[in-house]
Design goal:
Protein name: ABC transporter permease
InterPro entries: ABC2_TM
Number of helices: 18
GO cellular component, one term: membrane
Shape: elongated
Subcellular location: Membrane
Distance between the termini: 40 Å
GO molecular function: ABC-type transporter activity
Structural class: mainly alpha
Strand order of the largest sheet: 2-1-3-4
Length: 396
């Protein structure tokens, strides 16, 4: 009750109103938050279209040099997803630079060596720096390998040798992956981008409300008002987190609006998150927004100057997101439910589940959010003690 009365005193209400007005009047902070939130769905749409292009069947351009005397090779290479151009003579390197994915060159005297069983040469030229060239070379090798195997079998049969003697077993590769499983990396990146929105959204305002006010000497004036130090820190955290939380909700809303227009069905995803899932994500972002805001404010207060705070936070804000990216790419299996009590990691895993329309444990979401709120309380108390040190106010 005592805490509640302190929260709703007239000086505390005036402090929160003052902090909110300063944060939301900062056009630079608001513009940065809105720009990142608006660009968010465009980035996701571009990633999805890139994934579809990569998964789709590509027609490979292949140049065949000297194939006029070996029509069987030309016929074999014309099968599948190939656009075959038969040329008399040309430089393979220049052809690869001219949008060809692979170049097949038949060695001189191929027909004579083939008839005399001398294993004639077939040269395959590729550009190792082009990933499509590598895929095209793999398809060329596969087609030529099938033809080579067929010719070997025919020669064995002509000599009365059973084909099974040369092939004691057969290996058949069957890809059991689905378009949905091959596209999980896209939906895995959405939680990281949402979390990054919180960092970017409060970057400018957290620096201005701490290191900026200290340089303008307004922080010292604020400490002389009839409010306690923890109330000052709390008011700043509420104001700074409000703009970052708004940016994340705007990004999430714009993503929900864009989802129906994305070719999710072609990726094997029947439905994305529901309205209830989006609301759950928004509510789960609030404790994280408070935690990120208080951490950035404390780091900015510990810096030597306004520019120093800008440099430190600009670098450090990407560190947690990088760690989440490494955790996701390394495919570390999170065993047991205790990982849901770890901030950032818990939100990332919750959002990955909710974005594909699955459900999560409400009890663990509440528990994980309470852990984040407890960390916020601890940081606020630590920040209140820091504000009482004269050395902090005297930093330049």
């Amino acid at each position: 009750m005592n805490f509640t009365r302190r929260m709703f005193t007239a000086p505390m209400r005036a402090l929160i109103r003052k902090e909110l007005l300063e944060v939301w009047r900062d056009r630079r902070a608001l513009g940065l938050a809105l720009a990142f939130a608006i660009l968010f769905p465009g980035l996701i749409a571009a990633m999805i279209m890139f994934a579809l292009k990569s998964q789709g069947e590509k027609t490979f351009r292949v140049a065949l040099i000297g194939g006029e005397n070996v029509p069987v090779l030309e016929q074999q290479l014309s099968k599948g997803s190939f656009q075959l151009d038969s040329l008399s003579e040309s430089d393979p390197a220049s052809l690869l630079n001219n949008n060809y994915d692979a170049v097949v060159k038949i060695a001189d005297g191929f027909a004579d060596d083939y008839r005399n069983f001398r294993s004639p040469k077939v040269y395959l030229y590729v550009d190792g720096s082009n990933r499509f060239s590598g895929r095209g070379a793999t398809h060329v090798q596969k087609n030529l390998g099938e033809l080579q195997q067929l010719i070997v079998q025919q020669r064995l049969v002509a000599r009365g040798v059973a084909v099974q003697l040369m092939a004691p077993w057969q290996v058949q590769v069957r890809d059991v992956s689905t378009p949905s499983s091959r596209s999980t990396w896209i939906f895995s990146s959405i939680p990281m981008l949402l979390i990054m929105t919180l960092f970017v959204g409060c970057l400018s305002s957290s620096i201005d409300t701490s290191a900026g006010e200290r340089e303008r000497m307004s922080l010292e004036v604020l400490l002389q008002q009839p409010v306690e130090a923890w109330q000052i820190v709390l008011g700043k955290v509420i104001a700074v987190s409000s703009i970052s939380w708004f940016a994340s909700i705007l990004a999430l809303t714009s993503l929900m609006v864009v989802f129906p227009f994305l070719p999710l069905a072609e990726m094997g995803i029947k439905h994305a998150t529901t309205v209830w899932g989006a609301v759950t994500i928004a509510l789960a972002l609030l404790p994280l927004a408070l935690l990120i805001a208080v951490l950035q404010i404390l780091l900015a207060l510990r810096s030597q100057s306004f520019k120093d705070a800008q440099t430190q936070l600009s670098i450090l804000q990407f560190l947690p997101v990088t760690l989440l990216f490494i955790l996701d790419m390394s495919a570390i299996e999170l065993k047991g439910p205790l990982w849901q009590l770890v901030p950032l990691v818990a939100q990332q895993q919750w959002f990955k589940v909710l974005l594909v329309g699955d459900s999560i444990s409400v009890a663990w979401v509440i528990a994980g959010s309470l852990v984040s709120l407890l960390l916020v309380v601890g940081c606020i108390l630590g920040g209140a003690r820091a504000l009482q040190r004269e050395s902090l106010l005297g930093a330049t």
